[in-house]
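Quarterly update from the structural biology core.
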Amino acid sequence: MRIARTISELRTGCAALGAGYGFVPTMGALHAGHVALVAAAREAGAPVVASIFVNPTQFGPNEDFLAYPRTEEADLAKLKAAGCGLVWLPDVATMYPPGEATTITVAGPALRWEGEKRPGHFAGVATVVAKLFGQVRPARAYFGEKDWQQIQVIRRMAADLLLPVEIVPVPTVREADGLALSSRNRFLGEAERAKAPSLHAAMAAAADMIGGGGAVPAALAKAVAALAADGLTPDYFALVEAASLEPVTVLTHPARLIAAAKLGRIRLLDNIAVG
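Predicted structure, tokenized:
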């Protein structure tokens, strides 16, 4: 497995892989969900490039950029074991050199939900992902469905800018009790970890109710009440059109339940398909 820390090293490493390789962008602190992304990329039969970069521009002023876990040695071991061919490890100066004057702002699927709760977040995501695509130049890029809205934002950005990369979603990897894997789960205390699966349980119950013909507002209200009873504070809990992220009040075609809820100092995100 090659490691690149400069653009020159990245170019040499990518050239050695040949054409058609896949790409798994990450912020490190890797877990089984990230390994599943590498596995999905390898199933395409082409080499895999992964990146590790904790992107400062997608964190708000009161968010956890400095506290975000950085575990490079362990991450590299996981990527090597997963069969990754090249790892791109840029620094902030490489990603955001002095004098640059371009930021990508996405409307459409970026406007609601996380876009409202975290102003500027998706501009940071879209900008850094576009930069990574330009640096790595992959045929396909793999993203976990846990961050469903992020995937739709990146898809929209790539389509609108005519970027020659296929965006491939990979199903969420979960713990046995339903909790979606996340790098931030390591910050959950024992009592919080015991309550955390309540988010997925509430979503599954709401999906069953809606899928069975129940009224959408009633199902959402019941789920929010269940979360509050378990000590979770929802930022939002909504049924949305899968690509546009616009709210759905009557289920007429497959949609997506999306939610974010605070548990102590940790913010949990999840989503599931409905219909």
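The mean pLDDT is 97.
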